[in-house]
């Protein structure tokens, strides 16, 4: 490596090690071939930034250049500028003005060779320029071809001319000179004239004796040129600009050094020699486009009008289009909005301006590319008008559209790709093809009048399940064709919902309903939004069953009921939720983003996105309208406890149990900052300031003292640390004007700190408001009213309003039955939202909060010494038995009021069963692992059985009274004889606690369910395993049953089984296969009551919703 480059790396080594993300940079450097995979692996096992810099210092100039280019690509512009001045000679002038590398000698050589001058408005593209020059250096020792290819207007010619405008290239590689020849679309006579002119120019520089008559044919011209290039100009470069035809190129196949520009990358396949390529595909970035417009209009880039940025975006990176617009604005500087509208309306013909380019309007350049195709291929290319932007498609899709064999389609697409009319993603198998935005815009503009007719004549459909394109975009194409009625019928079909959701997922479906909402109603969108998380289950749920939970007046329910009735007549099982009209859903969208708990979810400031994080250690971002996943990041090494958007929605902050705080770029899913050194315990919460004036981030943690910090993202360490709390801080929140930050702590206080000075301003002693109990008061969170004059805080089960000016409590909004975890005002301040461990969310009007109004108690149970866990009634004698948590059983006669206490269990009694009515014997079982048998009348303990090593979780007596079964936390179930009280069989095989059991009505089978959601069917006689219900149906995000299997019931004919857990499932007993699943609104269903005819089912979920379900017939 050159001394200057090495010295530069050493000089800025510390700053580079601090700021770079080596993994992204190494990907580019491996592509350039300057480091290998083994070196990358060694770097990854060390401090990556330090190791990468040490490796670079042992490399050559190419490694320095590659590292510089990687910094440019990854937008480390400030770091790239540090290295720029010491770039080795190969690219020392990549960024500099022409005077740096364009000496008078270079200027003379290029002028004599006919190389075009720089355009009046010129913007450098250093990355592409370096790649072309690197390829040219490969021609230093041997002849060969360097092909610069790309679509029309991508700047190939300017790039080729600029690549040779370099003293090092001229002196080291091409001391014989550089000779430029513009070709274009020429016939043979015109091509002969071009070569005659070139030969004359080359001979004119020699002595007069070397002059010959002009060659009369192409063959003679080829030999003359070969002689001149090999004998008289042996180390010179011939630049052929704008080559279209391989036959033209063969004329120049004379074993010399050639740089050519073309739209067709395959042209050099027909010639011999070494070949190198540079693709010009990406176009200009936004800043380069703005620079061109600023140069044309002689304006500072920061002073450009607001339309400038939109114009650059509409130009899609095309140097030609940006230059055309800039030239027009130079003469008509007041037409920014007019030309923006022309671009948005794809009026390419109106955007024209004479220039040095062969075409003065984009439509001419695009059309010229298409016109060289065979006639039949031109028509096929026009068919690509129906594709959607930014979508890559396999050849199989077009084989359906064109009605051709896939192999033939692949050949045609290869031709389009070679002519830069189409792009290919070769990283996928099969290959995927796509159009540049400008190409698609041009096709749409050219074929606008024919597009609708194309759809109507031949609407794209496919029965091929592998052809995902049509399943995803059929609605798009139907809408483009104005097939409104057909689109309505398609999207209001449960069959379509089922097919598309199963293959593409629910988010694409919801997007369709949002996109085409004006011609549809909202019923199906609401249905999908509320059930989308169910449609992500595997095995895929029955959409008809899900739709039966919709309101009875909806079209969704009507279709579902008709289909359910039809399928029920053929033996399919469906259940209808009879009392669903009594439950109103306030949800707009339900998603299931993470495995495990979700600790934080937040809206972006514009409401378009939702970010979530949790126990899965990931951060995910979704569309708020459809739940479509936009980003997924493996964010931390431990649980992610909080996430927050910045005021402009460009950044996301996360904090974690791993004690780190991270800041991410939302759009690129790229890590920007890590603050890992200062918090010593888990970081509980993070929040950005509310305004963009000075962007700060506040964090709070479980640290003992230094538990609240404010960070400036431009600094490696915290800007301020707030002192005052001596217990963990759960939440922090900026005031609306960002003057103060409020903190909520386990020490029972809310403290307000000044952001600028970090001084404590006020302390609110929340614990002093809970004088009725000695329990500690943990303040979970606090939030500000919109005017910044009041603070709401949550502690225990109360929500408290504090007036900062009066310094007193204004209201106490009790009502929750358990701890309140979060409170937040609506954006307009009219409503207060609170959520609690009682699994409810309450919305209160702010007026009620301000006035201190509280709700009345609706119900409160009588306080008892020990909770009642179970009851059992006996008719003869007329008694009721109560089982309590303290292990006692009380038997009461409801006629006489006399009671008897049966003592013996050491832990809580779980349930009872009557073994017989005459004499009345009661079976009780408990967490102490024992089963006891009692005489109900005398209270005598008849049997005391040590049944299990663990707690007994369920027990059931067979209908014939011969056996009873017990299940336990020891993962076993046991069968017992009711006369001998001996264990007949021990049933092993469950991998988790066995939670429930039930005998079939004929007493021949026993069903058991465990906490992993697995159900097993056993033979009572042999104790053998008969079936494991749907063992292969486990969803990766859940257990088999969405939770514990809590209850089981057989149908009267013993052919069906119903089970409850996270949801309700019906099973075929003989096959062990699931027949149907009902998903409740809540979860954790405990028991289900079943009618004798197995047609009606009643249960209740954990949030108190009652379900009365009836089989559809």
UniProtKB/TrEMBL annotation:
WD repeats lie at residues 633-674, 722-763, 813-843, 902-944, 945-986, 987-1028. The keyword Cell membrane does not apply. Pfam families: APAF1_C (PF17908), CARD (PF00619), NB-ARC (PF00931), WD40 (PF00400), WHD_APAF1 (PF21296). GO terms for cellular component: cytosol. Keywords: Apoptosis, Repeat, WD repeat. One of its GO terms (molecular function) is ADP binding. Residues 1-86 form the CARD domain. This is Apoptotic peptidase activating factor 1. It comes from Lates calcarifer (Barramundi).
């Amino acid at each position: 490596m050159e001394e200057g480059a090495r010295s530069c790396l050493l000089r800025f080594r510390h700053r580079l090690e601090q700021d770079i993300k080596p993994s992204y940079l190494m990907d580019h450097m491996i592509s350039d071939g300057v480091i290998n995979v083994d070196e990358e692996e060694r770097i990854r096992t060390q401090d990556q930034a330090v190791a990468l810099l040490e490796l670079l210092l042992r490399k050559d100039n190419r490694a320095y250049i590659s590292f510089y280019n990687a910094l440019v690509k990854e937008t480390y512009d400030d770091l790239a500028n540090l290295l720029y001045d010491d770039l080795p000679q190969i690219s020392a002038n990549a960024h500099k003005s022409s005077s740096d590398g364009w000496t008078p000698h270079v200027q003379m050589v290029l002028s004599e060779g006919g190389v075009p001058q720089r355009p009046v408005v010129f913007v450098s593209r250093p990355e592409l320029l370096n790649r072309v020059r690197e390829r040219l250096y490969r021609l230093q020792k041997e002849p060969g071809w360097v092909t610069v290819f790309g679509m029309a207007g991508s700047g190939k010619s300017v790039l080729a001319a600029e690549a040779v405008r370099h003293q090092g290239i001229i002196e080291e590689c091409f001391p014989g000179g550089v000779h430029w020849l513009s070709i274009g679309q020429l016939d043979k006579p015109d091509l002969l004239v071009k070569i005659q002119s070139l030969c004359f120019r080359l001979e004119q520089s020699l002595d007069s004796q070397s002059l010959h008559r002009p060659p009369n044919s192409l063959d003679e011209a080829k030999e003359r040129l070969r002689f001149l290039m090999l004998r008289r100009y042996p180390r010179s470069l011939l630049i052929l600009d704008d080559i279209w035809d391989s036959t033209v190129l063969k004329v120049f196949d004379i074993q010399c050094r050639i740089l050519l520009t073309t739209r067709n990358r395959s042209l050099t396949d027909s010639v011999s020699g070494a070949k190198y390529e540079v693709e010009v595909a990406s176009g200009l970035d936004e800043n380069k486009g703005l620079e061109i417009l600023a140069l044309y209009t002689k304006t500072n880039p920061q002073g450009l009008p607001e339309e400038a940025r939109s114009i650059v975006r509409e130009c899609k990176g095309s140097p030609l289009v940006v230059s055309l617009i800039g030239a027009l604005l130079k003469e008509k500087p007041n037409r920014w909005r007019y030309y923006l509208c022309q671009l948005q309306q794809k009026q390419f013909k109106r955007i024209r301006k004479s220039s040095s380019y062969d075409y003065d309007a984009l439509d001419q350049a695009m059309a010229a590319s298409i016109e060289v195709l065979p006639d039949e291929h031109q028509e096929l290319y026009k068919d690509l008008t129906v594709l959607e932007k930014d979508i890559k498609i396999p050849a199989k899709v077009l084989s359906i559209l064109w009605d051709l064999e896939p192999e033939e389609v692949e050949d045609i697409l290869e031709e389009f790709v070679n002519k830069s009319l189409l792009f290919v993603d070769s990283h996928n198998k099969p290959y995927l093809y796509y159009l540049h935005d400008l190409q698609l815009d041009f096709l749409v503009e050219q074929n606008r009048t024919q597009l609708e007719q194309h759809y109507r004549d031949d609407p794209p459909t496919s029965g091929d399940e592998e052809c995902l394109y049509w399943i995803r975009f059929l609605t798009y194409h139907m809408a483009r064709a104005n097939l409104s009625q057909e689109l309505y019928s398609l999207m209001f079909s449960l069959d379509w919902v089922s097919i598309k959701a199963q293959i593409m997922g629910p988010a694409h479906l919801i997007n369709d309903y949002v996109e085409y909402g004006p011609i549809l109603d909202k019923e199906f969108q609401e249905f999908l939004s509320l059930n989308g998380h169910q449609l992500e289950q595997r095995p895929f749920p029955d959409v008809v069953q899900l739709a039966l939970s919709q309101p009875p007046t909806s079209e969704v329910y009507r279709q579902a009921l008709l289909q359910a009735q039809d399928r029920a007549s053929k033996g399919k099982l469906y259940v209808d939720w009879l009392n669903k009209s009594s439950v109103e859903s306030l949800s707009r969208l339900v998603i299931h983003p993470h495995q495990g708990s979700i600790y934080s979810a937040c809206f972006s400031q514009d409401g378009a996105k939702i970010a979530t994080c949790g126990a899965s250690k990931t951060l995910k971002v979704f569309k708020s309208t459809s739940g479509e996943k936009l980003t997924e990041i493996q964010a931390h090494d431990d649980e992610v406890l909080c996430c927050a958007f910045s005021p402009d929605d460009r950044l996301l902050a996360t904090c974690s149990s791993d004690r780190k705080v991270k800041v991410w770029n939302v759009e690129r899913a790229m890590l920007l900052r890590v603050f890992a050194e200062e918090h010593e315990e888990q970081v509980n919460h993070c929040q950005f300031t509310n305004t963009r004036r000075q962007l700060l981030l506040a964090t709070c943690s479980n640290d003992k003292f230094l538990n609240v910090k404010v960070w400036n993202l431009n600094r490696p360490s915290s800007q301020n640390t707030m002192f005052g709390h001596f217990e963990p801080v759960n939440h922090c929140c900026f005031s609306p004007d960002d003057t103060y930050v409020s903190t909520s702590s386990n020490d029972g206080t809310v403290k307000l700190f000044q952001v600028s000075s970090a001084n404590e301003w006020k302390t609110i002693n929340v614990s002093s408001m809970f004088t009725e109990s000695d329990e500690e008061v943990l303040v979970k969170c606090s939030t500000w009213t919109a005017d910044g004059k009041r603070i709401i805080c949550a502690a225990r089960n109360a929500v408290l309003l504090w007036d900062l000016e009066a310094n007193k409590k204004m209201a106490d909004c009790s009502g929750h039955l358990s701890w309140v975890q979060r409170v937040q005002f609506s954006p307009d301040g009219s409503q207060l939202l609170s959520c609690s461990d009682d699994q409810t969310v309450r919305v209160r009007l702010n007026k009620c909060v301000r006035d201190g109004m509280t709700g009345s108690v609706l119900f409160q149970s009588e306080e008892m010494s020990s909770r009642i866990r179970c009851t059992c009634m006996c008719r003869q004698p007329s008694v009721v038995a109560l089982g309590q948590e303290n292990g006692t059983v009380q038997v009461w006669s409801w006629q006489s009021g006399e009671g008897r206490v049966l003592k013996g269990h050491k832990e809580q009694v779980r349930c009872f069963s009557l073994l017989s009515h005459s004499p009345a014997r009661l079976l009780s079982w408990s967490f102490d692992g024992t089963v006891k048998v009692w005489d109900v009348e005398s209270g005598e303990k008849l049997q005391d059985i040590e049944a299990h090593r663990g707690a007994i979780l369920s027990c059931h007596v067979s209908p014939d009274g011969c056996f009873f079964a017990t299940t336990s936390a020891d993962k076993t179930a046991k069968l017992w004889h009711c006369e001998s009280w001996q264990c007949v069989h021990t049933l092993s095989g469950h991998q988790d606690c066995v939670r429930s059991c039930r005998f079939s009505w004929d007493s021949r089978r026993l069903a058991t369910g465990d906490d992993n959601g697995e159900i097993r069917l056993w033979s009572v006689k042999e104790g053998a395993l008969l079936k494991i219900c749907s063992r292969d149906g486990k969803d990766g995000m859940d257990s088999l049953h969405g939770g514990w299997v809590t209850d089981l019931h057989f149908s009267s004919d013993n052919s069906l089984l119903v089970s409850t857990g996270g949801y309700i499932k019906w099973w075929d007993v003989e096959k062990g296969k699931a027949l149907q699943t009902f998903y409740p609104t809540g979860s954790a269903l405990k028991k289900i009551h079943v009618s004798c005819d197995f047609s009606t089912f009643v249960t209740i979920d954990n949030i108190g919703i009652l379900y009365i379900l009836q089989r559809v017939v």
